[in-house]
Amino acid sequence: MRAMVYRGPYRVRVEEKDIPAIEHPNDAIVRVTRAAICGSDLHLYHGMMPDTRVGHTFGHEFIGEVHAVGGSVQNVSVGDRVMVPFNVFCGTCFFCARGLYSNCHNVNPNATAVGGIYGYSHTCGGYDGGQAEYVRVPFADVGPGLIPDWMDDTDALLCTDALSTGYFGAQIGDIAEGDVVVVYGAGPVGLFAARSAWFMGAGRVIVVDHLDYRLEKARDFAHAETICFTEHADVVRHLKYLTEGLGADVVIDAVGAEADGNLLQHVTSAKLKLQGGSPVALNWAIDTVRKGGTVSVIGAYGPLFSAVKFGDAMNKGLTLRMNQCPVKRQWPRLFEHIRNGHFKPSDVVTHEVPLEHIAEGYHMFSAKLDGCIKTVVVPDAA
């Protein structure tokens, strides 16, 4: 089969790999029909994530058709159209029993922190991802879900991470009716978080970014006010001015490890790898939220130390909530929103590339070329 493979920072290519085999009776092999490039894939692409090994196939957002199943699989059958959450999870451990699928204890040797994630380095279990023609899906009775007949393929694809994560970010912000919500980052996850904040009762939603085309999308898709942080000497001070000097009630960090805005922090973290990620967005979030407010973190960070203003968070009495999204837990409510027309997730998709051109797709997304917000990858499997 053809698959994207990692060859080092900024170097990905398409090569021939063996079609994955059934390794356990509860495995399924899925023929991928749609995949996506996620903003957190760029952390791998840029060499930010530890233990990203040469030859690894990325891709934690994918849907497809069941090609083969192990002997004990009962809930999906060959030929089924399935959407696969980015979490690899067993469904039975202490954490899965509590709906914390992203923290499954049985799928990752490094599970003291994160559980398993498709295509996201050996730090997250070493599972090959879906930017390929075929992918092995463990625990096929608990992970994949059947795509509803009424749902568009691209909408289903975005439910596997971006939409679910954005919705989760607003959910764990504990937004109360009338709250002022600030979202840092106008990528797909930030856009979905901002749109979701209205469903939680927000009275005002403000999105902060520095790319005009993404801010335009935030106004159009998320119906949010927007701020370009490069137009202000101190964006936190400006946000305090806009909120009567108090700060926002809830701030969502949808940026993560490679935030711009402070040259020194960006160089020491993103370039020299001296931290687990640039703390700029998270520190702005801590500074922007009012005393006693809530910071929701859904942007991805590496496991290394970052220079975060934890003392300020403590002294302000903040609630910090964060996790990788337990995707499948979000689906019932999101399916309702999509079917009722409250969401059209595919509205954030700007580009579609064949698998053979995925290197160009990564470059375009990484360099923010051609107004790229979200890229769908079409494997074209036979």
From TrEMBL:
PROSITE patterns: ADH_ZINC. Pfam families: ADH_N (PF08240), ADH_zinc_N (PF00107). The keyword Transcription does not apply. Keywords: Metal-binding, Oxidoreductase, Zinc. Gene3D superfamilies: Medium-chain alcohol dehydrogenases, catalytic domain, NAD(P)-binding Rossmann-like Domain. Residues 188-259 form the Alcohol dehydrogenase-like C-terminal domain. This is Glutathione-dependent formaldehyde dehydrogenase. It comes from Nocardioides potassii. The lineage of its organism: Bacteria, Bacillati, Actinomycetota, Actinomycetes, Propionibacteriales.
